[in-house]
Amino acid sequence: MMTCIAVDDEPLALEVIRKYVSDTPLVRLLNTFTDAIQALTFLKLQQVDLIILDIRMPDISGIQFLQSLKERPMVIFTTAYAEYAVKGFELEAVDYLVKPIKFERFEKALEKAGKLMAMRRAAALEPEEDFMCVKSGYGTVKVSFGDILYIEGLDDYIKIHFLDEKRPVLSLMSLKNVLEKLPEGRFMRVHRSFIVSLKNVRSVRKKHIFLETIKIPIGDTYAEAVHSWLSGL
Fold first, then answer.
1. 31 — phi, psi (to 5°)?
2. Number of C-alpha atoms within 13 angstroms, CB side, residue 157?
């Protein structure tokens, strides 16, 4: 079951939503708000799966409300003004309901939200691949993330160095592009010419990172990110 809140400056509109929600098992209504600012305060303390959100409100529009959220739940817009539909879908709204809202149309919108939530949850449970494939020479090499010690940038090429003694892999690729292939939180670019495996960092001294017996320079541009990572350990 999804959790949701409803935000609308018209009490009668909220009464309709409360009635409709009570007639469906698809969603649990945690709270309703005629004041958008109070709703924003609530969302700072409580996560929800879905917001049923009016667009035209006096203090802040529903569109401004949604844009102000750092983490956006799913949203179903409600309004008496059909001309806002395009803007609503630009913000990836699940659905857009024009007042007066019929129960069958409301239930259909909730079903769409439920299917979207199920898809997102299923995607989150899929195991993340622990390797990448890179072109090297005339072939393709499978590189396990856990085997990487560091990656060196050499003009138009990268050189992937490994924990063991096996030969490094040379590939025609930029450090920026290979960083996009690496799992977030396990690797960091510390210099314009180096990406390191964070689990293999043994120490950081002044302007260098030490990996096993390898010393990697820390570039001035990347120093703040390195120290921010260190402070979070």
1. -170, 160
2. 10
- Cβ count within 10 A of residue 182: 18
pLDDT per position as a tens digit, 66-94: 889 988 899 999 988 766 555 555 567 88
- At 87 the pLDDT is 55
Tell me the CATH number at 150: 2.40.50.1020
Q: What is the pLDDT of residue 78?
A: 92
* Type of residue at 67: Q
End of a domain among 109, 125, 141? 125
Is the separation of the CB atoms in 79 and 56 below 8 Å? yes
Are 223 and 208 in contact by the 8 Å Cβ rule? The answer is: no
Q: Quote the pLDDT of residue 53.
A: 95
Task: Please give the residue range of the domain that contains residue 34.
Answer: 2-125
Kindly state whether residues 120 and 168 are assigned to the same domain.
no
Are residue 106 and residue 161 in the same domain, yes or no? no
Q: What are the structure tokens assigned to 178, written together? A: 């290979």
- And the tokens for 43? 């969302």
Asked if 115 and 31 sit in the same domain, the reply is yes
Number of domains into which the chain is organized: 2
- Provide the pairing of β-strand 187-191 with 169-172: unpaired
Longest dimension (CA), the chain: 72
- The pLDDT, as a whole number, for residue 109 is 95
Q: Which residue(s) pair with 209 in the sheet?
A: 204, 216
Cβ-in-10-Å burial (0-12, 13-18, 19+) of 35 comes to: middle
